[in-house]
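Table 4 source record.
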Amino acid sequence: MRRVALRVWVLVWLMLVWILLWGNVSAANVLSGLAIALIITLLLPLPPVPIEGRVHPISLLGLIGLVGWYLVQSSLQLAWLAVKPGPPPLSAVLRAHMAIKSDLVLALAVNIINLTPGTIVLEIDQVRRMLYVHVIDVGSDRAVNRFYRQITQIERRLVASFEREEHWRPSAEKESA
C-alpha cells in the first residue's frame, strides 16, 4: 500500500511540475503531464530507497524551524559581507563528519547545507560520512566555529527526526554488505 501511494505521489508531483512549466492549467496540460509522468516512471525508474527509521513530527518541526532560522541568519550575514567596505571575505573548503546512518537522511543533510546561503557541498565521502563544504566566511575562528556548530545542530535534529536508535532498522542491503 505504501509503495502504491508513493508511486501515485510521484506521478502527481511530475504532473504538477509539467503544468507549472507550461504556466496554465488546462485539460491538455493535465493529460500530457500525466502521460509524461507515466513515461518517466515506467521507462526511467529510480532504484528503491530503503526507509530505515521513522519520522518524528515534533522533532521534524524543530528541524524545520532551525533550518528556517539558519536561512534568515546566513542571508543577513551574506548581505552584510556583500555591502561592508573592505576586502572580500576569506573562503575555504571545510571538512565535516556526519554521524548519519541513512543515505536518504544524508542526502537531506546535503540539501539543507546547500540551501543555506554561503555554503555548498563540493564532495561527499559516502563511506566515511564526510562532507567537504565550501564556506564563504572563514575569516575568524568564530566564523569557523559557527559553521561547525550549525553542522552539529543540523545533524542532531536530523537524527532526532529520522534516526532515533529505538526506531532504527537497518535495511536488508546494509545487513548483507
